[in-house]
Specification:
It is built from nine helices and nine strands. The chain is an alpha/beta fold. The chain folds into two domains: 165 residues, Rossmann fold; 65 residues, Alpha-Beta Plaits, CATH 3.30.70. A five-stranded parallel sheet has the order 2-1-3-4-5. Strands 6-9 form a two-stranded antiparallel ribbon. A two-stranded antiparallel sheet has the order 7-8. α1 crosses α4 and α4 crosses α8. The chain is globular and about 55 Å long.
């Protein structure tokens, strides 16, 4: 088995970074890879492969709506191996563990053999910011974690988790987000600070933003990935509701730059509040496995 089709959806760049890291790691192992980003309006060409690897960020307990739409458009597969990697800001804890339920169910209906699932933890970009020491360390350990995933994929060993009963409930609730996101996206407005650069439209993966007279217009195709907000250099975009979801000053690029020069901290010694226990456990486990 040497052809790997890596497909990902990314809003703010965290999942794109993880997907590219996985592609590079598999290529280093002599594998032939293809990297595809799920974007509205893009072709749905069925590319020959021996394994499908899907990566996506968790959006309200489940996969983003465009991911499920992409999966539903897939042709039937005759038992092709598949892996699902969710990207979380909080770690492998409930309700984050509910995020893969819908995508795995859809893949199985399409005839895929989902033999592997896992999570990668990245800096949070919604509502509550990950403490900087954790954010930096998460990017520093990313290559190590991805190598472990690549080893698991190449070994062919099964790694599946039976979803908790409560996670099935959370996954069901998450489906409601797909329709509410579209209404929410329609309410986004650009302030007078907007200079018409168009970066928000370029970043948008769903086609929710179009530029009209050098100003962004918003429709009903949003999936609340928040990519447009963090792409805007002027901070000119504002939603009508749930404004607290947007983190002021979040910059994945800035975290990457700090991760390159900072010494690797001891995760066990970094203070963590209750909501970051899943992240700390992920980082401590990394140190134990190194």
């Amino acid at each position: 088995m040497d052809k790997y089709r890596i497909v990902y959806f990314s809003g703010t760049g965290c999942t794109a970074l993880a997907a590219k890291c996985l592609e590079e790691t598999l290529r280093e192992r002599g594998c032939e890879t293809g990297l595809e980003r799920i974007v509205a309006g893009a072709g749905r060409e069925e590319r020959p492969a021996d394994m499908l690897i899907l990566l996506f960020p968790i959006l309200v307990f489940t996969a983003p709506g465009p991911v499920i739409e992409w999966l539903e458009a897939l042709e039937k597969a005759d038992g092709m191996p598949a892996a699902v990697i969710s990207i979380s800001g909080g770690g492998e804890i409930s309700p984050n563990t509910a995020s893969r339920v819908s995508s795995i169910k859809t893949l199985k209906k399409k005839g895929y053999d989902v033999f592997y699932e896992d999570t990668l933890v990245m800096p949070s970009n919604i509502a509550v910011a990950t403490p900087e020491p954790f954010s930096i360390l998460l990017l520093q350990v990313l290559p190590d974690k991805v190598r472990a995933i690549a080893d698991g994929l190449l070994s062919g060993g099964r790694k599946r988790k039976a979803p908790l009963v409560i996670d099935r409930f959370f996954a069901w609730i998450g489906k409601a987000e797909w329709s509410s996101a579209k209404k929410w996206g329609r309410s986004i407005r650009a302030s007078d600070e907007c200079d018409g650069c168009g970066l928000c439209a370029e970043q948008c993966s769903t086609g929710n933003i179009t530029m009209t007279d050098s100003k962004p217009s918003f429709s009903d195709k949003c999936c609340t990935c928040l990519g447009c907000f963090y792409a805007c250099p002027k901070g000119a975009l504002t939603p009508k509701t749930a404004k607290s979801m947007i983190l002021k000053g979040f910059s994945l690029k800035a975290i990457e730059e700090k991760a390159l020069v900072a010494e690797r901290a001891d995760a066990a010694k970094i203070p963590a509040g209750l909501i970051w226990l899943g992240v700390k456990r992920y980082l401590v486990e990394k140190e134990l496995n190194d």
